[in-house]
């Protein structure tokens, strides 16, 4: 939904991400707020074919028509793996159809064949903030147990179709982010919701069951396949040695790791009883849910890492880290920040890797790590993004330290290999890639691809397996 575009091609339906607008006149502080708080009016407007608003995630950077060119560039860099997602709405446009859309299946056949031509292994997310909008508006999203069956039909369809082409699967992207943006995560509008915490955790439970069922189906169809989970992991540290800060950090951390605790261990941890009680959450479950979750845990854990955040039990008189996208938190005076206010903490990645491996003893895959910045194209198509190189170099060094610590890190895909629409702000000018796309925040431009300085740098990183970082 950030790269593919072509939302009106090949029978594709609208997804929950297709309702987010970009409006230059909107105050900048509201760009991320929109990501967290979708309104009923916005959802209704987005379904109006006469709307004149710009919906960036319907257009992406037109990977749909540029995939051969883009994959050739990835191959030139030496990619061994390409992390991507399959748009649920290309396969089942509304989500509840009985038969899949052949045009959508055929598109991904072409993509996987192109990757195979260059020897690039696909790592595929099934649901990356793009569930069918129809399932949100007509069924109430993942709070409705019927969505499990729709999802499993989708998952089984693509497992069968691509069983000889895809080995690594992630059922849900950043599954723990339902805490922060329930609309794109489970299809629930938070505005005026009578019990949003109940909805979030009920939707999450149904996704846990769906993940287990998808894992079961995947193993039956392709026994050598591997199925993982993915969370957004924003390392949390106590702001001070105040015991209250330490306890608050533990509580906040559990709210994120609850998701991997269930998916990796196969059961709800003991602390959830108190967590649910304090949130007045009472899950509705079926007798078979517990056994299914237990029997089909994930094979590996993947996560995104961009920043850390300091936590205080008494934040009233402390400066907030307003740019930190997910948890906010307290500004850490020891850390620099990005152009968008995200606190940069490379050593926190080593800590995160150790924490996750100590907790689960499962292989880890860093699925996202990168720097959003405002790149400038100089004369001769030169883009000097030394700041990105520095950011990635410092983080990769810490991955190497974690491996020496004994952590089993089996993969790393930086975010992102090519410029795309920002998930949080719907901007194009917040750029992450090694490849520049000539397109502005309103979709204007030639869409020409231009290599940045980091392109050649990362090519050497891959060739040396992380040994050559200068």
Automatic annotation (TrEMBL):
Record GO cellular component, one term: cytosol
Q: What is one process in the GO biological process aspect for this record?
A: carbohydrate catabolic process
| Record's signal peptide | none
Q: Name one GO molecular function term.
A: beta-glucosidase activity
Q: Which SUPFAM superfamilies match?
A: (Trans)glycosidases
- Is RNA-binding among the key words of this record? no
Kindly give the Gene3D superfamilies that the UniProt entry links to this protein.
Glycosidases
Keywords assigned? Glycosidase, Hydrolase
- Return any one Pfam family short name: Glyco_hydro_1
Q: Where along the sequence do coiled-coil regions lie?
A: none
Highest taxon of the source? Bacteria
Question: Which family, according to the similarity comment?
Answer: Belongs to the glycosyl hydrolase 1 family.
Kindly provide the name given to this protein in its UniProt entry: 6-phospho-beta-glucosidase
